[in-house]
Write a structure and sequence with these properties.
Chain lengths: 118, 131
Amino acid sequence: MNSCKHCGTPNSPQRHYCKNCGRRIVAFCSQCGFANEMGTLFCGGCGLKLVDSEPRDAASQTPKAASVMQESASSLSTEELSQLEKINKHRRQTLDVAGSRQNLEQEDLDKLFGKESK
Amino acid sequence: MLPHETKVLLIDDSMHVRLLVRTILKKLGFSAIVEASDGEEGWRLFQEESPNLIFLDQIMPRMNGVQVLMKIREENPDTRVIILSSLSSAEKILQVKEIGANHYILKPFTREKISDVLSELGWQMHEEARS
């Protein structure tokens, strides 16, 4: 689930634009076209540092780059979906353990990283 | 427990923490231990030494633990990384878990905690090898 950084609405991993406000919720890598979550520091497809790069619109790219990006944006691969599911799992586990607390104890960390989290 | 021939890299800017972890590891039977006093040196040693296990501090000069972890994960998803930190914020912990930390030990820590976590990682590796 990708949450919109603008309005906070949870969106399915397949979406590139928020279902509530229409803002872009993924950042395309300028090198390989991989659709990364907004705020991602390094591209999940090629490892390019994304910190200073703005999300790019496929239509504004050269024809070749645009076709690469549209192709990669058209569907998420099994690996990408698996990665998103893994991130969601981490978040759920942390929320389960932390509840409303801001700080965790060692016991919480053992649960998060231990056998039961695998 | 992880095999004693496991090559360990300690990355922490505190000499006292490095000394403590090294002493504990030696008592647990590990002998191949290299050390770095900041993130940049840690990253360099990671590339040169190819360690199997890394103890990684979060707050360090030149390159922090999150930056080092990201680079390590890009290079090698299999190296075991244990975060050693006094940061207990759920947000920070979730961040390193998402990047791929294998465990997280809060400072101050005990010899028993290090031993328990190494046993846990050994168990996980065993399970992964079976599946």
